[in-house]
Design a protein that fits this description.
The chain has 721 residues and is of the alpha/beta class. The chain folds into 3 domains: 7-189 and 196-204, Tetratricopeptide repeat domain (Serine Threonine Protein Phosphatase 5, Tetratricopeptide repeat, Alpha Horseshoe), CATH 1.25.40.10; 349-506, Rossmann fold; 526-701, Rossmann fold. The chain is 57% helix and 7% strand. Strands 3-2-1-4-5-6-7 form a 7-stranded parallel beta sheet, sandwiched between helices. It has a 5-stranded parallel beta sheet with strand order 10-9-8-11-12.
Amino acid sequence: MTRQVGVTERLAWAQGHHRAGRLGVAEALYRGILAEEPGHGEVLHVLGVLTQQLGRLDEAVTLLERAVTLRPEAVEPLVSLGHALLVSGRTRAAAEVFLRALTLAPDHLLARTNLGIAWLGLGEATQAEAAFRRVLEREPARAESHGDLGAALFHQGRLAEAEACYRQALALNPAEARMLNNLGNALLDQGRLAEAEAAYRQALAVCPDYDEALGNLGVALFAQGRVADAVACYRGVLDRQPDHEAALGNLGLALLAQGDLTGAEACARRALALRPGHADEHFGLGNVLVEQGRLAEAEACFRQALALRPDHPAALGNLVYLQMFMPGVGLAGILAAHRSWNDRHAAGFATGRVRPPAGPGRPRLGFVSPDFRSHPVGFFTIRTLEGLRRAGHEVICYANQPEGTGDPLTARFRAAATAWRSVAGWSDDELAAAIAADGIGILFDLAGHMEGHRLLTFARRPAPIQVSWAGYMATTGLEAMDILLVDGHQVPAGSERYYSERIVRLPDSFICYEPPVDPPTVTPLPAAERGYLTFGSFNVLAKINPGVVAVWSRILQRVPEARLLLKARAFDSPDCRHRLETAFQDQGIGAGRLSFLGRTSQAEHLATIREVDLALDPFPFSGSTTTLECLLMGVPVLTCPGESFASRHSLGFLATVGLTETVAGDLDDYVGRAVALGNDWGRLADWRAGLRQRLLASPLCDGARFVRNFEAACAALWAER
């Protein structure tokens, strides 16, 4: 007689096949049982788990919901249902299920862990932290939970604590690739690039196909300036995952840095096609278009990014900065744009001023910048900080640049600083607390809305007097910024109402320039040897708008033998060269009269400037460092200042060296002066012979004189406190 096999025994057989990975056999057995007993809660539970393993998430959720309904007091079906909901992206529902499970079994570690993961997914990092700490109270040697706690702390910006958690997890399980990758992220965000690189490489040694770690390695390499190596990492990810959004976006940034603007745009557009509803993809494309000089298209991208994510500070910051390049946007429009950034991102932090100490002592001076290096801000400020230190001031530098990315100028800043703080990766609260603890009396911002700025630290008012200086060509719009330190050329009398800060003017120039070491010698006027004049511009393509092209074309039409040399890194891109060449052709200027050069070394750049007889300044955003470099190489610069700070840089420098003959009153005057000078080679030759010495002997390069003026301004501000 054949023995009848009971449900319990058949369930055991099915579970055995399930544990052995024979999922098809197990599913058939489970379904056979359910055909006889549709309300068997335990079978519904295990079949739900199995269908989740097979990737049929909706079916799994349905089965597990039925199991929970049949066994409402059982914890395990609830935990399994919560996990299925979590995996299927229904995070809020998952959290509610895990909370329900924990009311039945408060010490259920898996439910508590998954609840923490759900909280993280919902952006509730503090609640996630509490959940993971509860788990570790019960199982302190649980490596995965140390990692989970690290993730919760990382999402709160508590990077050092997150790092400690990841290291503890790795001490318990050294070969965990995911944890090595997470450690790399914590180190990367602290600006410790070499250590981050090592962590990512360890993760890849454990798991060579770990694309997330490979992409992150690319980010660490890119931040160290190893752009070609970063490109190789991103391409490695894309070889396996052609639609990997992060790798596409990062590859676009790297190609942009290499001057491959066409490739960068292709990456940005591909990423946008994959995620059209994501603000960051519109933002990334906008950045590429700015580099190409396509300002209207870039503006549309930034506005779309803000429509999708109104709290995107970088998108609004770029849109605000872009206004200084746009023809027709005056001081009122620039102020309104900058105030909009303050109102959206900074106004909530504004508090009363920090009370300054009483007494006659000199204030400690703090300087916040991402650019203590070979950068225009570095060239504009190094002599000042060195002079302040020699004069006995306490100078504290807050360097918001990754460790290990400095250069010889960085070493000089370090030597000039009484104290050097590497603050990359610090939260704004941490940085503000450090500034307050250092007792800074006057705090200088050297970045404005440029990349790497810390305006939200200034919004917290960590110092009694806060000053914008040297790094930005407009108002910051920041309610918490007290002073804009300028000179009378950049911000003339009568324009103060268009600045949110109080205007304080230095005598002479608002900066002191550090020229390049051992520049090439100044050569005789090239026109005398060639028989024709060469105009030139060395400004970024974003400054060369259609109005500039039209005016420069008028000049070339009236000086018919002249040529125009244009040099900018964007001209490494054939598309950018062709686009601008076409714009000139539309104005009647043939391609044979134009020369385009891309990026070169600093020495080659200065040598190229020598090939020009007269430099043409763009508008409404004039030259800055480029103007000083031209003067250094004996090349006068013709400028047409407007009402904005950004339009008046060259004016300030030219006035300080006493070359006001090249300052035009309007665009017709600009054309007229260019034509007159284009036919007056004798005057150009005379200027060329003496301009370098005029620059070097002027207040623009007189460090001792500038520091005295700077000290006097600081003393006056301190006396008013």
